Amino acid sequence: MSDRTHATRGPWTGMVPVDDTALAVTDTGGTGVPVLYLNGQFATQGYWRRVIADLGTGWRHITFDERARGRKSKRSADYSFEAAIRDVAAVLAAREVDRAVVVGWSYGAFVAAHWASRYPDRTVGTVMVDGAQPYDWLNDELEAGIRKTFRRWGWLMSLVRPTGLTPRMTPDQMAESNIEIGRLAREGELGPVLDTISVPARYVVASGESLGSQGGHELICASLPAVTERNPNIRIHAKVPSNHGAILRKDFRAVAGAVREVGAPGPGRG
Question: Where are the beta strands (DSSP E) in 53-119?
């Protein structure tokens, strides 16, 4: 594989085909280290604008909206986690990027962790923002509650769908995506993935409680010391005061700092 990490590319915005769909992608271009941003489960690429602004033009920023998210990405028959992994490969291939820093928030952190674990030769480093923390939170009762909640609020989400604020997915599809990540978060599933990451990896963790979390977030975060003890490539870069939903808005500087730490050459990257 030729190293196109620092290849020169001009700014580009367009659609990248993958499987039965197409994804809306934005690439700032330039000669800097590429940074690929992976969104929250139903979020859009605009969430990263403060992180991108803080990092500046010395980096090549690549953002995209997942299947049926945002205003332009198309619907699909497959919204599985494995489809999200394939989408990462498709976007990097379309933009002719061999290696990138992979940064994910929430759901995107799980994708980033799996990508770094599976493809270390294609990963400069990874930053996991308040996600990919091993914890067995899903049970049968909660799974049923998730399905019920998405069905209950489906009508409202359909009303705001034209704005791009909610995905063009059915309530059952959204529920299944949420449940699947609960299964993937289990210690027995996620632990081995994190243990095999061989590139520099950093966590940025929220400490503020979200509405309805009732202390559960702190329990999830409690799993991280064991993760970093088992794998010296993984470190907690920062624990910030904002909550899960506000972290990219209020603590973007910490996220940008973690990107600089894993993406800059020299001592201290491992």
Answer: 60-64, 100-105
